Amino acid sequence: MKLLISNDDGISALGVRTLANTLAEVGHEVTVVCPDRERSATGHGLTLHQPIRAEIIESIFHPSIKAWACSGTPSDCVKLALWALLDSPPALVLSGINQGANLGTEILYSGTVSAAMEGIIEGIPSIALSLASHTSKDFQPAANFAKILVEQITAKPLPDLMLLNVNIPPVSWSDIAGATITRQGIRRYVDVFDKRVDPRGKTYYWLTGEVLEDIEPPKGLNLPEHIPIDVHVIRENYISITPLQYNLTYGNGLEQLQEW
Length: 260
Known about the structure:
Distance between the termini: 50 Å
Number of strands: 13
Largest sheet: 9 strands, mixed
Structural class: alpha/beta
CATH class of the largest domain: Alpha Beta
Shape: globular
Number of helices: 6
Strand content: 25-35%
Helix content: 10-25%
Radius of gyration: 19 Å
């Protein structure tokens, strides 16, 4: 299968290297286009007011992989790959493996999820992959699951155009309890800004928000309540797979506003 892989942790990140090499080693045709530096939490930003540069990268990945480092955002990387760098569209876009979870409302800020979202905007099914730890460096279990998921999609394509947001617990392969379909939860933060003073005496702020609580989504979203929430299952060492779409229209709102 022809695959396009991107991320938001940068071209040198261990997560994307593990993912790309694992998939190339089993025979997939892999192209990697990633930011040339860390671009986490950039959301779906695009570069409009300056040029985007792309440099061919050699010796980092499996010999069969074509790779570029891009000066833009994760969304820029996928858009540039689809419209300028690839000679034909991939069958699947993958993003990750991210260092840290993308669960609940975190997906709204995530460059990892946004890169994958760019794929479905262009009509290509996509997968965002995240390791639910900011410290663990063992990306192989997540890459192993990505390999299984790509094999399954190859044999049985997704029934509709969607993005699969996949979060993998930071445990060994043998300790993963299983994989389950989930719905997006809500993750509330305490947005703590650390106030500091630079060497020139000027004040600046560093965002250091911490998770306050994980709560149920509102009832009005018409989501099946028997489906578990992503932020809950990851604590039980299950892999969370949440299908996402880019259309943000609030269905209940359409009905309610007709009578407003």
